From TrEMBL:
PANTHER family, alphabetized: KETOACID-COENZYME A TRANSFERASE, SUCCINYL-COA:3-KETOACID-COENZYME A TRANSFERASE
Region (Disordered): 1-20
Pathway this chain belongs to: Ketone metabolism; succinyl-CoA degradation; acetoacetyl-CoA from succinyl-CoA: step 1/1
Active site: 349
Pfam families referenced in this protein's UniProt entry, alphabetically: CoA_trans
The organism of origin for this protein: Sarocladium strictum (Black bundle disease fungus)
Reaction it catalyzes: a 3-oxo acid + succinyl-CoA = a 3-oxoacyl-CoA + succinate
InterPro entries: 3-oxoacid_CoA-transf_B, 3-oxoacid_CoA-transferase, CoA_trans_fam_I, CoA_transf_AS, NagB/RpiA_transferase-like
PROSITE patterns according to UniProt: COA_TRANSF_2 (PS01274)
Descriptive protein name: Succinyl-CoA:3-ketoacid-coenzyme A transferase
BP GO annotations: ketone body catabolic process
Length: 521
């Protein structure tokens, strides 16, 4: 027993024979012991360079964070400053922005391959990928979270309902381009298997070499807590690496975190440093009146009236007592129009149940953002958890309604909303959100035709699918349709458009409901 303890303090895997300085006895005696008794475990390192010792070129780095929230910026910067290190595979939901977070490691060329769900507005990420300088494995956000969580649990692969019948499953996403723009490497097709009459996609877990993790509080034993929505991918990643390096807002004494409040037990954590980089806010969004939310300033004239009409109609789908997940844009504007007394709990896929309104000036918090990276608040009674758990409740069908925008919907209820041909934006969480339509009703809100006047409700989608046979209702600026197993059924139509005119704007055939009525706003 005694010998084992001594061995554990004098060497750690992957380090020199003496072990990292942070595990040498002299330091922690000074820092934490008032008595001569020497604590056996002290994971606190005295410098970032010490904390990242042992990180090797070619390693798979799991990097926590969603948008700018919960990003281990101090550790990322210390990797950036080690110009001798590179060729990394980085697993992270997104890759910061140019000059911020992981965006810097793209600039320095230290990343060879990204495994991510979202490229988004990061132009550097997009251009490096499209010119063949960077490999990209684009995967659904919930799949990414589960690949880390399952790996952490020692499970090498799992079946998920997300992405069945999509390019993710078919292996039709370019991983690497040639400099001339042709595809050099395609993604791997996934095996599928049916369970209880439903098809699932097999995904292999990710196993990290190193996890870079952001937490709020940590003690010398490595027990951690997260603050607000800081957890996101941090917890699942922290549990899933050979070396887990934590940076914390605050280092506290052992005992300060009550056992039942430990979010990440110390057994998963190898090294600890204090964060020195300030937290940043990507999209400061402050409280608005319902009117301001509905009449978003970025839309003018008829565009704005269409938007307002869809929001007003869609808001009627939110019923008292529902748990809902709302996409960015029109769906997220609908709660502003809820009648008083209607209680709807908003779920946010970055790990929030009970998301509140935008903050008043001065109340904004970098650790509290929505999936659109905007600052938000929490409702009384809210709860917070990691992205792996968030997507667990989504795929398991605990959410009553998910509302999202679309590029195209087919007469069978297929949804295409994540990718225009030739544009890389990312998948995000949508494939998971529509993966259990038997339990979670999928409502699409969109303009009836595209900017060129082309129908968006089609016999068959031409853009890559987000999900198959998943949509149950379509709300456009002129009509409301139900998607039924027998096809589309028109339920409502604005009075100034005739059924014949609607047919000319709708490629898919549709029946008219017995209780057909004027568009309700
Ligand atoms: C903190 O972590 C250590 C080591 O993993 C563990 O023995 C201890 O019980 C933990 N403390 C709390 C409060 O959970
Ligand atoms: C929401 O879903 C749960 C089950 O997942 C169900 O028990 C509940 O009745 C639903 N609530 C509403 C308002 O539809």
């Amino acid at each position: 027993m005694r010998r084992r303890k001594a061995a554990a303090t004098s060497s750690t895997p992957t380090m020199s024979r003496r072990g990292p300085a942070c595990l040498r006895p002299s330091m922690f005696v000074r820092m934490f012991s008032a008595t001569t008794h020497r604590p056996a475990i002290n994971k606190i390192c005295s410098s970032t360079s010490e904390a990242i010792a042992g990180v090797k070129s070619g390693d798979t780095l799991l990097v926590g964070g969603f948008g700018f929230s919960g990003v281990p910026s101090t550790l990322i910067n210390s990797i950036r400053d080690r110009k001798d290190l590179g060729e990394f595979t980085v697993v992270s939901n997104n890759a910061g922005m140019p000059g911020v977070g992981l965006g810097q490691l793209l600039q320095t060329g230290q990343i060879r391959r990204m495994i991510a769900s979202y490229v988004g507005e990061n132009k550097l990420f997009e251009s490096q990928y499209l010119t063949g300088k960077l490999q990209l494995e684009l995967i659904p956000q919930g799949t990414m979270a589960e690949k880390c969580a399952a790996g952490a649990a020692g499970v090498p692969a799992f079946y998920t309902p997300a992405a069945v019948g999509t390019v993710v499953q078919a292996g039709e996403l370019p991983v690497q381009y040639n400099p001339d723009g042709t595809v050099a490497v395609m993604s791997k097709p996934r095996e599928t298997r049916d369970f209880n009459g439903k098809t699932y996609v097999m995904e292999e877990s990710i196993f990290g070499d190193v996890a870079l993790v952001k937490v709020n509080k940590v003690d010398r034993l490595g027990n951690c807590t997260f603050r607000k929505a800081q957890n996101n991918f941090n917890e699942a990643m922290a549990k899933n690496a050979k070396i887990t390096i934590v940076e914390a807002d605050e280092i506290v004494q052992v005992g300060e975190i009550a056992p039942e409040n430990v979010h990440l037990p110390g057994i998963y954590v190898d090294r600890v440093i204090l964060s020195t980089e300030p937290k940043q806010i990507e999209k400061l969004t402050l409280a608005k009146s319902a009117e301001e939310i509905v009449n978003s300033g970025t839309y003018a004239g008829s565009q704005s009236r269409k938007r307002e009409r869809i929001i007003k109609r869609a808001a009627q789908e939110l019923k008292d007592g529902m748990y809902v997940n709302l996409g960015i844009g029109i769906p997220l504007a609908t709660p502003a129009l809820l009648p008083p007394g209607v209680e709807v709990i908003l779920q946010s896929e970055n790990g929030i149940l009970g998301m509140g309104r935008y903050p008043e000036k001065g109340q904004e918090d970098p650790d509290l953002i929505n999936p659109g990276k905007e600052t938000i608040t929490l409702q009384e009674g809210a709860s917070i958890f990691g992205s792996h758990e968030s997507f667990g409740m989504i795929r398991a069908g605990k959410i009553n309604v998910t509302m999202l925008g679309a590029l195209q919907v087919s007469m069978d209820g297929d949804l295409a909303n994540f990718m225009l041909p030739g544009k890389v934006k990312g998948i995000g969480g949508a494939m998971d959100l529509v993966a259990n339509p038997e339990k979670t009703k999928v409502i699409v809100t969109m303009e009836h035709v595209d900017r060129k006047g082309n129908p968006k409700i089609l016999k068959k989608c031409t853009f890559p699918l987000t999900g198959q046979r998943c949509v149950s209702k379509i709300i456009t600026d002129i009509a409301v349709f139900d998607c039924t197993p027998a096809g589309l059924v028109l339920r409502e139509l604005v009075p100034d458009v005739s059924v014949e005119q609607l047919e000319s704007m709708t490629e898919a055939p549709f029946a008219i409901a017995d209780d057909f009525r004027p568009y309700q706003v």
